[in-house]
Every structure is written in C-alpha cells, then in structure tokens.
User: Fold these one by one.
Assistant:
Number 1:
Amino acid sequence: MLSLYKRKDVWHIRGTVTDGNRVVTVRKSTGQTAKRKAVEICRYIEDTILTEMKGGISMLPFITAANTWLSIKPRGATDKYITDILKKHFANYQLNHINQDAWQHFVAKNLYGRKPSNINRYRATFVSILNTASVSPKITKEKEFNDRIRFLTYEEQERLLAEYPAFIRLLFITLCYQGLRLSEAVSLLPPHINLEANTLLVEKSKNGKRRIMPMHDRVRKGFWSLDLSRSTSVFTNSAGVPYADPRNLRGVHVRSCRRAGITDFTIHDWRHHWASRLVMAGASMPVLMKLGGWSSERMVLRYASVSDEHTTDTLMRLK
C-alpha cells in the first residue's frame, strides 16, 4: 500500500504494491504542494503498477493517461489547449490502439495544412503523455525546414509599426521590444506594469513560470501615456474591451502588413524578430534565455537568426 508524507512543503510517495508474490517498492516525489493533487497521482501510480502486474497497462484509456499527465506538474496554457484537442480525438482509444496510423489520422483530421513545426508541437505533447503512461509507440516526427527569414530590417520594422491602428499599436511595440508571446501580452494587467521600477511581470507564461523583465524605454514611454488605473486590462480593442481570444488580432496584423508592404511575417514572428535583433546587438545566451523565458539553448537557437550584413561585419572584425 502506498502512502503520502510531506517534506519541505512537497508531498512524497512511499510504500509497496503487492500482487501475489510480486512486490514493487515505490519511493518518489509527486512534485506537488497540494495534497489533493498528490493523492490523485498516488492513486494513479498504484493503479498503474497493479494494472502492469496483471499485464494490462495498455488497456487504459488515453483520457486517463492525459489527465494524469496534466496533474503530475503545472502545465502551460498551450499544453492544456493541445491536450484538450488530443482528448477529444482519442476519447474512445485505449493505449494499446495508439500507433503511427492513429496519429496520422489525427493529423489529417485536426492539423491538415499546418506547418511541420506546429504538428511536431502537438506530437511532443502526445508522446510525453504516452511516455508517462509507460507506452512508447513509434510516432514519426515531421521534417522541419526553418530557412524562412523571420526578422525585419529596422526600416521595415518602423514601417509596419506605423501601420497598426493607434488603439493597438502599443501592443505590437511591446511584442517588438519585449519579445512577449501574444498570449502573454494580452494577459497583462495594470498591476503587472511597474513604471517606477521599470519592470514588466509576465504572470501567465507558456511554461507555467512567471518572469519579471526590464522594460525597453520605448515600451515604458508608451505605458506612461496610458491611464492604467481605469482599465481592467492593459490592452483592449477599439471598444475598450479586453481580448477574449488573441487570435482575433490576426486580421489587424494582416491588414497592417499589407499596407506596409511586408509579406510572410506572422504575429509570432515578432518574437523571432526580437530575439534576432538581440543576438545581433551582442546579447549572450543566458540573457536571451532569461528575457525570453526559454528553458534550453536549443529553443533560443530556433528563434534567433542573424542577417547577412551582420555575419559579414563580424567576419571583417578579424585582424
């Protein structure tokens, strides 16, 4: 029988699971400070071990594995969104029925026309859920081609920023100079902006962690012009209503790009633009990781690029 005990505010599991002559000893952390979630994890681990002992772990429903994966540790908004879509599609699947064909059917039905990088984002969550349930079918990764240039020259940047409607221009200036994800920007509340300390708090980040950033002078100047005391959200639409769905800004962005003569540049590309400009300004990898909220250098390298002029200039510095 498994039991819980608390150590340094975190609940841990210890005990044994027995089935006939077979005994499995468990001693591990739940990673949870809330007892309710720790109890759920403890029960799942015990049930999983018993099921495995009886040779039937692959008979568990996918939804059970997905819910457990969500409860093991805090997940970001994107992970939760992707998991909801996976649960709807694989609602009637048992783990032993999941294979490459089942995955391809999901992609064809739910992700048709998406970029390989986007499909791989869904795959990463899907595979992580399966691995947590000790099931590892081979799910092929899509080949990615990341040769598209996703940063603007300074002249292009200013031309595009000037074309955004005045009521929402500061949001895109914030994306340009702070490197926030769109979901992070529209979630900003007045208490998150500290003009005296010149800091900006990202409360809802993709990885579930909060981060505090210094504000660029141009962003700080923009916030000084706002009356944050009279608004429930920092950024609102033309009617003064907070954005319920940040994807509603896509139309504004597309029309602004068209007027500015900018092609093949998405809203999320502002984050690539920001990271690339910082690299070309001499920012170190640790600084980029901290400012952007990335947990690995590999993720930073996916975002940051350099211009041909910058590589030429760097080469010519050799004596």
Number 2:
Amino acid sequence: MHPIIHPMNRDSTRVLLAAACLLALSCGGDSDGPSAPSPVTTSSLSVTYPEDHGTIYIGDEVQFQATTSSSGSGAQAATNATWESDAPAVATVSSSGLVTAVAAGEATITADVPGSGRGSRRIRVFPEFHGHWEGDLNVTGISLPPDWQELGEENCNGLPDCASWIPLTADFTQDGATVTGSVMSTFIAPPNYEWTIESGTISIDGRLTLMSDEIAFRVPDDAGDIRARLISWESRADTPGVMTGTAAVQYSSDALSGNPVVEGCFEADNIIRECSGWRRQRGGGH
C-alpha cells in the first residue's frame, strides 16, 4: 500500500522558504558577512587669534576665531559661536569674537558652538613700556646726612636737595613681561649718569619693577667719586602712552659719610608737578 502524499499549498511553500532563509543567515550562509558599522564622526573646537599679532597690550582689539574640526569634514570656521570672557575687567569679547584688552591681567576667552562643544584660549594683557619716555622725578622725600648737607650749601649743582625735580629720560624695549633698556638723568651736568636695565619685570597686575647697579661720577667741587644707584622703580602704564610711578635713588661716597636717598614720583613735564605721569615721546608704540 503506497503512502498518500498531499500536495503543498502556496502558503505552506512560503513559510518553508522563509524558514530556510533564516536558517541560512543564522549559520553564516550570507557570503558577504555581517554589515560594517557606520563610521563614528568626532569633532573638536579650537579658539585662536592671528599669530602675527604677538603680545596683546592694553587698548588692543584682536579678532578671535572659533574653528571646528571633525573626522568627516575637516576644519571649518564656526559662524554660530557664543563668546564669553571670564574676566571682562581685563578683556571683553563681542558676539562676533572681537576681544578688547582693557587692563593688565589674565583672561580666558571661550567659544561655545552647538554640536561641537566648547573651546577656550588663555591670554595675558600687558601694559606697554616700549619706547622713549621723558619727564621728571618730582622729589617728595630726601634724606641727607650732615656732610652732604654742608656740601649742598656750597654747590647746588652737586646735590639733589637743591632742586624740587630731577629730569629723567628712559628708553625701554619690552619682550612680554621683561623690560630692558636704560634710565638717564641730566640732574648733574656734566656728566649725565645712566642706569642700564637688564632685567626689569612686569607683574600680572601690570607693575614694572626695575633695579640697577651703581654708577660712579664726580661732582664739580672734587668731593670724590659719588655713586648713584637706582634702588627702586615701580611704574604703571594703565593708559597707553602714559607712565606713572615712583622711584628712589641712593647716593654714596668714600669721601662723605652716610647714604642719602632721594624719593620721588614721575612727572609729565617741568611745570605741572602733580605726579600726573610721563608721556611716551618719539619712537613709542607698537
């Protein structure tokens, strides 16, 4: 007796074919293998300003740029950045990334770009001391031992107690926080005397501090070699082209006893003696 075989209908055939396909996939029947995952795109944000600008001084305006970098499209300028400064008293920033330096100090400029994150740049703002300065040291205090006082009564060209101001000039070169150059006085003539500045430094808050070695010269009445040393100099240039501050000069001599000290503040000219500050003369500015 032969078995009876029932023909399969179309629906049954479709079910069997689908099951066969699933079995083939589960057993690695797909000759192409599993599909590769889509590449992951990474992005970053950088904040820069023109390299040729160099040192940022009080009063400068500098255009900052936010740039996005991604593995998919490379570097592109971000036009939708939101800008901010963590120290607007030092440097402000506009909505377009224009930074204005308003005072000495440090600030962080940050750009925020949707989808790319945040980027920042730390900057330092300097006062500018570079250039040629002219003015006076208006004497505000003086200490003269007896020997020096007697000499001063005989010869007013030789001692600082015979004048209310001492004319000075200064020529400075600035490299970031370091200032070099010279300070010269025409108080004793002839000759003038000059202090060489090799390591003046500018602090974070903008103060310039100078010191110098002793300089020897002779006074007209043959009292002997007198050495003048710039023992302190602190100045500021919070307003571009104007320098204010104080200085002290110490004198000494083998022929005279004591070490007189002259202290004073900077003057803009010889007439208005109110310590209003020197003004930069020829050759100044950047």
Number 3:
Amino acid sequence: MTETQRYLKATAHLGAGAQRSSPNLAQQIADRLRERIQFGEIKPGERIREVPLAAEFDVSRGPVRDALKLLERERLLRLEGRAGAVVREFTAEELTSIFHIRADLSGLGMRMAAETEPRPAEALDALDAGVALLRSIADDPDGPVADYIQVRRRISEIINRIGRASYLAHILVDFEREIAAPWAGVFGKGRQHRSSDTWARIVRAVRDGDAEAADAEGRRIVLESLDEILRLRNEA
C-alpha cells in the first residue's frame, strides 16, 4: 500500500461520507473514465470510442454507451452518435466564468471551516498530514499526478466536513467534475509546489480560526489554477 493509499484509507471517515453502494456496470465504467479524465490521462478534445472500450472492459457496447451518457450529463463529454464521444473543451471565457464562481465557493467553504467551533483535533491533524503528503508528492519527481489530486481532494473534503458545508461540498464536486480535464493539465511539479504552499496557508488559517485568511487563500488556490491554465493555452 502506498503512502497516498494509507492516507486516504485512514481519513476516509473524515472525507465526503458514504460512497455509492454496488454501482452497476455502466457506473463502474463511468467511474474509470471519469478518473482518467480527472487525472489527465484523457485530454480535452480527445475522442472516446465505444468499441475499444467494450473490448477493454469485456462488455457489450450497451453498458459503455450508458456510461458515456452518464458522463455527458456531468458535462464531461459531448456525445457524437456512432462516432462515440469527445472530452469537452472550454473557451477561455467559459473557464474564467466557471473558475471565478468556484473561487467564491471555495473561499466560502474555507471561511465556514475557520469559523466553526469547535474544530475537531483529529480533522485538523489529518489536514496537516495531508499537506505534508502533498509536499512529499511534489518533491518526488516520480510522484503521480493522480496521487496529488486525490490527496488535495481529500483535504478539501475534510475542510468542508469541519465547516459542516455538506451541500456546498456537493456543488464543488460538480464544478470539479465539469472542469476536470483542463484542470488536470496544470498539475506539473512547479504547480504542485505552489499549490501545496497555498494549501498549507489554508490549513493554518482554518486551524487558527482566521476566517479572512482562509477565505482569501481558498479563492487564491482556484484562481492560481485558472491563471496557469490560461498561460499554458497561450503558450501552446
């Protein structure tokens, strides 16, 4: 078991809550494809075809088609009939709008956690451990992007749990799914180091009950990602 797996297992009860039980075949395939998009293995604009997926998962095309429909409803894909599906691409204007809305919600979630009394010591310690793990992954040249994203997500879940912001957490998950493909492309090692520093400031603000700092850093971490996405687009 890797360090990331140990952390995720140890903090599962502090995260997003109970997972969906017994997903059907289409949901299982959708989960796998969603992870590939979120972790940058499938890029924006890339085509996904039913026949190769059916062969990979050893199923008929029916469950694959249903899985693609699920991801279309999450706005991750655009279905194109017999041609399969294409991972959604965004204009710069769309990304700017989405990220600014998400930044406001992120700041609100961090503020709510900082203002909550009491803040459970176990959750705060889990946040500290998560930040340390983020830095370890960022320092490791071979540290997987998927590990960084999963730990970052768990830290966010714990903060929202501290702030008793369950409904807000669901909204943020929907936003993250929608922009998963462009977001995954910015998690190079340089961005990981900068991001882990910002997460450290967020966790410190939550621990100290500094709502203003938590709000500001919660917004900052989202808008820094937007800046990185737009910069990479301009350089392409």
